[in-house]
Specification:
Layout lengths: L6 H14 L6 E2 L1 H10 L6 H11 L7 E2 H8 L5 H17 L9 H10 L6 H11 L9 H17 L4
Antiparallel strand pairs: 1-2
Length: about 160
């Protein structure tokens, strides 16, 4: 099965894994796994997450290692998900002007203005407050991905008159 997956997809999955492996110990905790799944557009409940973790955790250590993730995700993984993740990362990098891995309010305002959508101070504050879930004043890739996924869902859920 691994041989049939293209090398670039595996590499993308590894990049995603490493981005969510916050402590870089080569395994994902339940929280890190939840964040990774949310970034792929999946929204598991606490129970589903617990079930997923125990199913994925082949060696029974309470964590998910990369190879466990690959064997669990591979059958359901479509190219689109990875392409979306890749495009999202490109957008994130274009907003992150200084390349430090975070988007500041100034970078967000500048990028929105450049795209022809200048923000008022209030809109900017509201966007930052909603997206900055850990309250550190900047947007990480995960926060950026989550807010975009949320606004896409809101947008798609809108009733068109």
């Amino acid at each position: 099965m691994m041989a049939t997956l293209q090398t670039d997809q595996l590499k993308q999955l590894k990049d995603i894994f490493m981005r969510f492996d916050m402590d870089s110990d080569g395994s994902l905790t339940q929280l890190e796994l939840a964040a990774l799944l949310r970034s792929l557009g999946l929204k598991p409940t606490g129970d589903q997450l617990h079930g997923l973790l125990s199913n994925m955790d082949a060696n029974g250590n309470g964590y998910v290692e990369f190879d466990e993730l690959v064997s669990a995700i591979l059958p359901d993984m479509n190219e689109e998900v990875l392409i979306n993740q890749e495009q999202l990362l490109e957008v994130f990098r274009s907003f992150d002007r200084d390349g430090n891995g975070f988007i500041t309010a100034a970078e967000l305002a500048g990028s929105m203005a450049k795209m022809g959508h200048p923000l008022t101070y209030r809109e900017l504050s509201d966007m930052m407050r909603e997206a900055d879930t850990n309250g550190d004043g900047v947007l990480s890739f995960n926060e950026f991905a989550n807010i975009l996924a949320k606004s896409a869902a809101d947008f798609l859920g809108m009733k068109v008159p």
